[in-house]
Amino acid sequence: MTAGIAVDIGLAALVAAMALWTILVRDAYAAVIGFIGYGLLLALVWVRLDAVDVALTEAAIGGGVTGVLLLRAVGALHRGAAPLEDGPPPGPATRRIAALACAAVAAGLAFVVLGVSGPAPTLAPLAAEHLPATGLKNPVTGVLLAFRALDTLLEKVVLLLALIGIWSLSPDGAWGGRPTLGRPGRASDTLRFLAQLLPPVGIVVGIHVLWVGANAPGGAFQGGAVLAAMWILAMMAGLSPVPAIGRPWLRAALVIGPLAFLAVGVAGIFIADGFLAYPPAFAKPLILAIEAAITLSIAVTLAMMVAGPPQRPGAP
Amino acid sequence: MTMTVFGLCGAALVGIGLYGLIVQAQPLRRILAFNLLGGGVFLLFGVIARRGAVEGLGSDPVPQAMVITGIVVAFSATALAISLVVRLKETGRGDDEGSA
Amino acid sequence: MSLLLDIASVVAIAGGAFFFLAGTVGLLRFPDTLSRLHALTKADTLGLGLIVLGLLPTVDSVLTGAKLVAIWLLVQLAGASVAQLIARAARQDRPQGVPQDGPPP
Amino acid sequence: MPAAALDPGLLLVLAVMLPATGAVAALALPGRWAGRIAFGLWPLGLAVAVAVAWTVWAAGAPLHYAVGGWAPPLGLMLRADGPSALMLLVAAIVIGAAGLYARADLRPEPGATESRAAVVFWTLLMALWSALNAVALGGDLFNLYVALELLTFSAIPLVCLGGSAKTLQAALRYLVFALVGSVLYLLGTALLYGAYGTLDIVLLSGRAGPEPAAILACALMIAGLAAKTALFPLHLWLPPAHAGAPPAASAVLSGLVVKASFFLIVRLWFDVMPGLSTAAAANLIGALGAGAILAGSVMALRQARLKLMIAYSTVAQIGYLFLMVPLLFGVPQAEIAANAAWSGGWLQLASHALAKAAMFLAAGLIAEAAGHDRIHGLDGVGRAVPVAVLAFTLAGLSLVGLPPSGGFAAKWLLLSAAVATGQWWWAVVMILGGLLAAFYLFPVIGRAYADGTAAFARPRDARSREFVVLALAVAAALLGLSQLYPPGLLRIGLGSGLAGAGVP
Question: What does the alpha-carbon distance between residue D226 and residue B38 come to, in Å, rounded to a whole number?
Answer without folding.
Answer: 19
